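ok so i was messing around last nite and threw this chain in just to see what happens. nothing serious, just curious
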Amino acid sequence: MLNIKEENRRVAVQPLLPVQLSKHTAGAYDIHPTHTLGRGRIHTDYEGLVEWMLLHQQVCIDGYTGIWWDELYHTLQEEFNRRGITVQWHFAKDALKEDVNALIAPFLGEEGDVWGTRTSLRIHDLFHKDKLAAMQSTHKGLHIIMGTGAALVNDKAPVIYLDLPKNELQYRMRAGVAANLGSNGSNVFAEMYKQAYFVDWVILNEYKQSLLPRIGIFVDTQRGETITWVHKDDLLAGIDQICRDTFRVRPWFEPGAWGGQWMKERIPGLSLEAVNYAWSFEMIVPENGVVFESDGYLLEIPFEWLMYRQHRAILGKHAAIFRYEFPIRFDFLDTFDGGNLSIQCHPSLSYIREHFGENITQDETYYILDCKDDAKVYLGFHENIDPAAFRADLDNSVQFNQPVNIPQYVQAFKASKHALFLIPNGTVHSAGADNLVLEISATPYIFTFKMYDWLRLGLDGEPRAINIEHAFRNLQFGRQGAAVEKELISVPALLEEGKDWQLVHLPTHREHFYDVHRIELDTTVSFKTEGICLVMMLVEGTSISIKTAAGTATVYHYAETFVIPADADVYTITNLGKGRAKVIKAFLKEEHPVFNSLYE
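result:
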């Protein structure tokens, strides 16, 4: 039996999601946002799972990578033994092809490469068909196939699906207690993450979507032997409700080389032992989960289940364009009492498609949520920059560990609260120290070409990867001089106003397929979604309530990110604080050239 000591299960500063809801600091940012399923919906017992399985002759227990299958098997077997029931077991891993690593290798680049290419493999490609077929049984009693890929054995058998959030999967990888899909490969976290992003998640997300009609029970396994589970119909009812109302994903937080102290000091519930917090994954949905609650018990599902079930309700007019990909992300970059981000840029649309297999690219903006008086944002080049001299200085820095005089090449602008800096792909940029940046962006989030990292080491004591060659294939040197301030710093414009509210437009760049508004209000105001999904955050004030036609009023606090799906139709914002509230709203433009080239 797999026996993992509790202290060795995960490497993280993020607290594990509790089984039961704990008290939340009233009026403050909530690190455990929940959505109710009603009473009696979430269960914690293995006995109930066994009772359900005994209703069937054959059951497939399938799930994601990172699941501790041996622990689950022994726990279930003990329950069957207690009942005196004989079970015929098969394990999907026994049908894996011997050359899985060779199949996967073309999508991973060379060892040490930061990025791979999104795989074209599918789950069936990793298994021997004849070995799967041999797991079929004529046994009259209960027959269970267990493991990732188990449901391939019998396309008619009901499925219990085991899942866990992507952040917890990564924490297990760091601890060395989770492996990649079908792999006996690298145990270096960077290599494991690369395979996870470009291979495992691609294959398993498509696979789990195909299983949805067959799944009878969803199980949240992030706590190891302590599980929470829900019947599919109860979970889908909860998903259907929030996808026509409003919801938050569960944020998660990570330290980093340049990280700061703003979140650590202001967000209740974060570990104070962390050296800093550099990022908050406010809504980077390939890695966020959604938490449901019943009788105080908590169950988290990865966000993709919402898209597979209700992408049309969520995305509205844009559902046919983006399908199951949620196109906008929000995250925090915290440099308060920290350091500068690396000098960096992001790939062009053609480059990210050709080299990495992505559909959309990493077009970003920096919204300054908070900053100190001397905080800066590095953005665009100075007039008449010499690209060759810049390249030479960067290369020398890597080779000889020499500092680069960045202000000689890159412009620095004073940061101010509520300013929006525009960072279309190919733009040189960095957030300076003493900022709390709300990064509003297209969803891709790992394609950062670092050119200079201020000669510092990562938290692991090793230099962080520098990607000068990639960067120089994408840098837009024409973004220089006076044109930078004119084109890349948004100028607010009043769109509408009432007695005690205003709707302000913060125009984005023509490359951005999303736009940004700010709603400023003293009391209450109502708007229509116009069939478009809205990603929102309270950026000034203490708290607001959001009420749609589909639900009761939901309270959100300062700095919390939330979504109003397209199908919510009408939403009313009420300011619950004393001063004026300001709410950022990011949304997809009605039309954009990139939409025409997606999913051709």
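not much to say yet. The two ends are 48 Å apart (CA to CA).
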